[in-house]
Amino acid sequence: MGDIARAVPRRVALALALLLATPARADEAPLTDVPGDAARGRAIVADRTRGLCLLCHAGPIPEERFQGNLAPPLDGAGLRWSAAELRLRLVDGKRLNPDSIMPSYYRVEGLHRVSPAQRGRTILAAQEIEDVVAYLLTLREEPPR
Amino acid sequence: MKRLLALLLLALPASAQDRRSGFEDMARETQAMQRDDMQNPGMLWVAEGEDRFNRDCTACHSEASMRGVAARYPAWDEATGAPIDLAGRISACVERHQRVAPPARESQPLLALTAYVAHQSRGLPISRPSDPRLAPALEQGRALYGERRGQLDLSCVQCHDDNAGRRLAGSTIPQAHPTGYPLYRLEWQGVGSLQRRLRGCMTGVRSEPFAYGAAEYVALELFLNDRAAGMLLETPAVRP
């Protein structure tokens, strides 16, 4: 029920986003030819200086003690979303929700005063995005309540 | 009834809503450290500032005349025709009246003097900047506060207004009130200015910070003080 209410605008937004995306960058398609590696993806998500994910999200990574609560838990992400949907959220979730606080992990344009060390670089590399997507797909349990 | 209450709360102006100093979000031990002057490491900077003040400044100023000064800065500087913050004023005073090289931003002598002067206003309410010539800088500060920046593409508003009280990893996001500066930060193992704190948040979102003393920081300080008007100064505060 709640799911359907959520799914409709999501599908519309996704369709819109795909329409707007240039064919060369249709983000439902994998960014590389090498399939993602879930174990490497887990390590990226757990690393506060690489994935940064646990700054905002909680997730089933018990060895990382301080997890954020600015965002929905990552638990169950693989039940809720397909690989293409997860990839789009990582590459540039702001195409779905322009006000989102979640950084766009694979976008360099449209940013302001990026520090010189990171200018022109994406937060994660293409293969790292694939690894994180592969890991998120393994998360098939809802968060503990 | 509940809904009515919620509506009423929404109708209140932001200033009437609960504003909290970062102090409120700290662990009890850190609060105790700030409260007790014997334990508060910032008091060492205040004491050094007092010595310097008595040596270098009492030809023109008395200790009593420093009460309330920090509560009304940044202020308009006639000499440069621009807003100036408290550390900038002290530095300019040394340069103009003592005719020696001004102490650099974030140097020990300037932090000590600024901590001493601001300490004279501890417990006083921050006053709203009233000089009309400050208005453009205040608006610039408001715009900088709302602007997304850096590789992580985040604005001050998104953390400190929209998500204050939530946890960014292990840190509770404070409302970003400038009530305690200069303050002793455990992470710094020393005293630092509000500009140092702002730089930290800017580099945290992987953006290029402004240079110390830049007009942009003074504008942000002005805006933060306006936003915190009426809150009580705590210098020297302690923060995690």
From TrEMBL, chain A:
Segments forming domain Cytochrome c: 36-140
Signal peptide positions (record): 1-26
PROSITE patterns: CYTC
Pfam families linked to this entry: Cytochrom_C
Keyword Iron: yes
InterPro entries: Cyt_c-like_dom, Cyt_c-like_dom_sf, Thiosulf_SoxX
This protein's UniProt keywords: Heme, Iron, Metal-binding, Signal
Keyword Signal: yes
Gene3D superfamilies the record matches: Cytochrome c-like domain
Molecular-function annotations in GO: electron transfer activity; heme binding; metal ion binding
Superkingdom: Bacteria
NCBIfam families registered for this protein in UniProt: thiosulf_SoxX
Protein name according to UniProt: Sulfur-oxidizing protein SoxX
Organism (species): Falsiroseomonas stagni DSM 19981
Lineage: Bacteria, Pseudomonadati, Pseudomonadota, Alphaproteobacteria, Acetobacterales
TrEMBL record, chain B:
Enzyme category, top tier: transferase
Residues involved in heme c 1 binding: C57, C60, H61, C93
Biological process (GO), any one: sulfur oxidation
Cytochrome c domain span: 53-126, 140-231
Family: Belongs to the SoxA family.
InterPro entries: Cyt_c-like_dom, Cyt_c-like_dom_sf, SoxA
Cofactor: how bound: Binds 2 heme groups per subunit.
Species name: Falsiroseomonas stagni DSM 19981
Taxon lineage: Bacteria, Pseudomonadati, Pseudomonadota, Alphaproteobacteria, Acetobacterales
Protein name, as recorded: L-cysteine S-thiosulfotransferase subunit SoxA
Any one Gene Ontology molecular-function term assigned to this protein's record: metal ion binding
Active-site residues, Swiss-Prot/TrEMBL: C201 (cysteine persulfide intermediate)
